[in-house]
Task: structure prediction
Amino acid sequence: MIFLILAFALLISAGYYISTERLSWENGWKKIPLPTLKSNIVALTEKADFLTNQANSLDRLETVIDVQKRILNINPLHFETLWKLSRNTRFHGQIYASNVQIRRASYLQSIQLAERALYTNQDFKKLIDSNTAPWNATEALCIEDLPALHYYFLGIFSMFLTDMNKPKKLINAHWINRSKAFVKRMIELDHTWGGGHPHYDRALYLCQLPSWLGGDMNKAGEEFEKAITIGPLWVNNYYMRARVYRTKLKDKRGFVSDLNIIADMDPKDSDAPFPNSCEYIRQAQIMLKNVNSWFT
Result:
């Protein structure tokens, strides 16, 4: 009898843990505010782009984000600003968040902004409004939606990679599995977009999924190679191959080789966004000084 009580209590505890650790959020298409400002959007978007190409620090990146938020206060469905702010919000959380809670909030906000951007596609909107799950609505997306689709995936992946221990990853593996549909659609639309981003995204999930959900390190290596062939000047291709692929294979030589390619690069010579290029190059330099710590 005591054994049955203990077993029941264990099941209840396990169920509670799983329910509280499942990844969920209020979808971005349910969070569309009304305009609160009137101003010249063209001038502000040009200003945001200009400032982005100088954003090599926290203060400068936050200045860009403030301008982009102002644009959305004028037009909450401004597609270009939605996906660019999604990109910058995720990056801000990844690099500058002072604790896990702030980083997680940044990733969730990035996901919601990307969702709102995708919702500007009227065919996709109709499917979502009819309660179709987003991973079952990807056929409605077109080539113009690629940036939003990429940062939607990347927000989910970033949370999975950096904010979850092994039990949480197991509980939420279905989200990375669902992401296959997003990446598949990206490759169908244009596999060369963004310096091979669709192949880069596929490589990321192939590295993280367990084999029983389709993870495959050999295929991940092939996808990284495709991305690098298409986008040899995109520093993220080398940085993430070193971080999530080389480390998992215990490939110290490949790890060093990838990071050496970008460590001395001028950020202005990279095709990746300037803030990201600055930080990935800086991180590569730090990682090369502490190689063994990545292989303990």
Observations:
- The chain is about 70% helix and 0% strand.
